[in-house]
Amino acid sequence: MENNNILIYTELTDEYGIKDVSLQLISKAFELKQKLNNSKIIACILGPDIDYSLIIRKLEELPVDDVIIASSSELSEYNYCYHPEVFTGIVKKYEPSIVLIGATVQGKEIASYCASKLETGLTADCTGLNITNEGCLLSTRPTFGGQLTADILCKTRPQMATVQENIFKIVPQPKHNVNIIYENIQTCCIENRLKKIFSEVKTSSSVDVTKADIIVAGGLGACKDNGFELIKKLAQKLNAAVAGSREAFEKGYITKSQQIGQTGKTVSPKIYIAIGISGANQHLTAIKNSGKIIAINKDVNAPIFEHSDIAIKGDLFEILPELINKIGN
């Protein structure tokens, strides 16, 4: 009998924990599984020869049926020669119907390699997943510069999709036992074309926008005079992360890691303060899971107001100094 199994590439952090996007995909997979017959959720881990008991314990609190662990010393750090090839071999062996991967730098590379090798379709940077009445994966992604969304079906198998971070919630399940499968990996037959010269970890003083409870973001309207200086002062008062739209990044006011939107980060803070941001669809999609959205814009017809919990219509250069002073030290 053909299976409807869902295989999830469970990406590890540098500290050998599980990335949030993988946990989010596992939770979403449980929702998809309810609409499929003869289906299991399989988490696939590629990593070094270490003790995975803490990771397994974490997965036991999520709706995982099987955990495949492929370990080797060559998989200690991500390698574009080893990881994509090993993962593709696992997909070939277990023949899942659906493969889900986080749309991280690593995930995108593995997904594109795997789809090419297996000659199957891949929907990238998805913002929604569903199952049709016929039992097929329906992947939703932004298109036409984020102005529209497209629902995409894949005629080949496996059906593959990469999904943006923070689109879905992590939903714990009652603790249960999972079936652990250890794969014997032979990397000696894989040509390694990568030679590591040295590595350098750069740290940033800014709060990670994907982890922040409060985000203060500026758009085109703040890209003049001292607009972003005011935004930084407000963020400092609120212990918030500073972020911005694509326009703010292109004009050099923020870094790529601070960009919110289709080509940037997807976020889910408790409070999102949008300053001088009009509210194009590609930006709204990336902030839709925010707890509360507060918008400040002098354009009374700005689309952002239709999606805001609090709408402040006025000049940010008049409003922000007053707001900063009211908050105090």
Description:
- With 329 residues, the protein is α/β, with parallel strands linked by helices.
- It has two domains: 6-183, Rossmann fold, CATH 3.40.50.620; 214-327, TPP-binding domain (Rossmann fold, 3-Layer(aba) Sandwich).
- It has eight helices and 15 strands.
- The strands form three sheets. Strands 5-9-4-1-2-3-10 form a seven-stranded parallel β-sheet, with helices on both faces.
- A hairpin with a 5-residue loop joins strand 6 (128-131) and strand 7.
- The N and C termini lie far apart (66 Å).
- 41% of the residues are buried.
- The model has no long low-confidence stretch (mean pLDDT 91).
Keywords summarizing the entry:
single chain, five-stranded parallel sheet, seven-stranded parallel sheet, 2 domains, 26% helix, Rossmann fold, 24% strand, 8 helices, alpha/beta, 329 residues
List the helices and strands and how they pair.
Elements lengths: L5 E4 L10 H14 L7 E7 L5 H7 L6 E6 L10 H13 L3 E5 L2 H14 L3 E5 L1 E4 L5 E7 L4 E6 L5 E5 L15 E5 L30 E5 L8 H12 L2 E4 L1 H5 L20 E5 L5 H7 L4 E6 L12 E4 L2 H12 L2
Parallel strand pairs: 1-2, 1-4, 2-3, 3-10, 4-9, 5-9, 11-12, 11-13, 13-14, 14-15
Antiparallel strand pairs: 6-7, 7-8
